[in-house]
Structures are given as C-alpha cells and as structure tokens.
Amino acid sequence: MTVVLRSPQEFKQWRRQQKGTVGFVPTMGALHTGHEELIKRARKENDVAVLSIFVNPTQFNDPKDFEKYPITWDQDLKMAEDNKVDAIFYPRYPDMYPDNYRYKVTESEYSKLLDGAHRPGHFDGVLSVVMKLFNIVSPTRAYFGEKDFQQMTLLQGMVESFFMNLEIVPVPTVRESDGLAKSSRNVRLSEADRAKAPAIYKAITQSNTADEAARILTEQGFKVDYVTDVGNRRFVAAVLGEVRLIDNVQI
Ligand code: AMP
Q1: What separation in Å is there between the alpha carbon of 110 and the centre of ligand 1?
Q2: Which residues' Cβ are closer than 6 Å to ligand 1?
Q3: So where are the chain's domains?
Q4: Is 35 an active-site residue?
C-alpha cells in the first residue's frame, strides 16, 4: 500500500518509523515512463521507496509555464502503487515555503550557464526545493534523470559542498521510439509540433558541431535557445510553439 503524506511534519513522523535504506525520487508529477525508470531503481535498490510530487513555483521563471504544467494525480498515484512505492510526499506551497522563499540555495558559476542563462532563478528554485525535500525525506539515495543533466550535476555539487549524507544516483534518459526525450511537457505539443520534435535528438546526435545542430533546428522552425558542447556532452534547448524542450547526449 502507498501512503500519501501532505505536510513535512506528517512525513517526518512516518519516516522515523522506517527501517533500512530509503530511495527517493523527487518529481513534479505528470509521471511518464522516464519517471517510472527512476521509481523502479529506487524500489529495487532500497528497503523503502519514496516519491515526492510538488510543482515547485520557485523554479518557474515563466508564470505561463507554471500555470500550464500538467497535473495527472490519479495516474501518478496508480504508477506509484503499481511500482510498490511506500510513500508519496505531496506537500502544498505554504508547507514547503514557511519563509515565503526568503532563504535560498544558490550556486554562482555553473548554474549561470546553459539553462541558467535562459531561465533566471531557475536553478536557485531547484536547489532550494531539493535541499528542503532532502531535509524532510532523509534519503539514503536520491534518483535523478540525465535528461536534466545540468540539474543533476548541480545537485551532486550541492550534496558535496554541504557534506550531505546521501548519494545522488544518475539515471539515463528514457526516450520515445522516435528519439524524443520523454517529458511531462510533451503532451502540450500540437500534433504537428510533436511530429517535428524528434529532430532535436537527431540534430544533436548526427551533427558534427553544436553550431551545425543549431542551424539545422533553426531552419526547421525551432526557436533555438542554445546548442552547446560542454566537456563530452552536447546540450540543447529549443522552443516549439509555446513548449520549451531540452535534451543532452554524450559526444
Ligand atoms: P520532473 O518531474 O520533470 O521535475 O522530473 C523529475 C525527475 O525525473 C528528474 O530527475 C528528471 O531528470 C527525471 N526525468 C524526467 N524525464 C526523464 C526522462 N525522459 N528520462 C529519465 N529521467 C527523466
């Protein structure tokens, strides 16, 4: 049985009764098979599996994106139950932000590049909410998708910098059969844009350079925020209609 706990106090009380290792999967809901892969890993590798669902307003730089973020609670609960998740932490805004976001966690270098350069404040919101979640859930391991590679790297850095007692486990990106990275935002694509969207993965895997990939996508009608190589990875963010999609691959 999956229990649903709504306040940090309620969750912490439940947590004190758990024994052994705790695997944690933080999400914003609207779960798909990408999230499910993280849940399966957490379930398999730990005694206790915890999922959180919280559409975190402080990480949305675009209010319209926040308002339109899909909510599919019934399906999400079913996925948790089917995968034998022990508990879902499902808080409300005032529970998570009793300080109304006066306190925040900031990284000052890497968080300003790539997505950070195009989404002011985004990674402050992510780092702050995940710090709160980690303090409430006290996981042994926390599972994050490589789909959001910059986010995962910044969280690894946060855990190291603050000597936090847990392990961040990266999980490879789950894709549709046509290559498009699974994302909760994909359902907001029009039929025509959904047909176009796999060009992102194709461009970053098949072009010789980042600039070439950017040019190809621009020619196909994408509004390209960036295609950039950092180390051995190629990162992309591109907008189709009103939907902003990100992806990255090893090169
Ligand atoms: P979100 O609900 O979008 O905030 O994502 C919650 C977690 O699921 C994050 O760690 C994401 O990186 C991960 N995730 C989202 N999409 C995918 C995917 N297609 N493959 C693997 N992990 C994913």
Answers
A1: 20
A2: 27-28, 34-35, 37-38, 144-145, 147-148, 171, 173-174, 181-184
A3: 3-171, 184-245
A4: yes
What is the per-residue pLDDT across 21-71, written as a single tens digit (0 to 9) for each? Answer: 999 999 999 999 999 999 999 999 999 999 999 999 999 999 999 999 999
Distance CA 184, CA 56 (A): 14
Ligand 1 centroid – CA 184 distance (Å): 8
Q: How far, in Å, from the CA of 107 to the mean position of ligand 1?
A: 21
What is the CATH code of the structural domain delimited by 184-245?
Answer: 3.30.1300.10
Q: Any alpha helices (H) in 31-148, and if so which ranges?
A: 33-45, 63-67, 73-82, 93-96, 115-118, 122-137
Task: Report the C-alpha dihedral over residues 207, 212, 213, 216, rounded to 10 degrees.
Answer: -110
**Nearest CA owner, ligand 1 atom 5:** 27
* Domain at 3-171, CATH from 3.40.50.620, 3.10.180.10, 2.60.40.10, 3.40.1190.10: 3.40.50.620
Confidence label for 213 from pLDDT (cuts 50, 70 and 90) = very high
> What was the pLDDT predicted at 25?
99
Q: What are 96-124's pLDDT values in tens digits?
A: 999 999 999 999 999 999 999 999 999 99
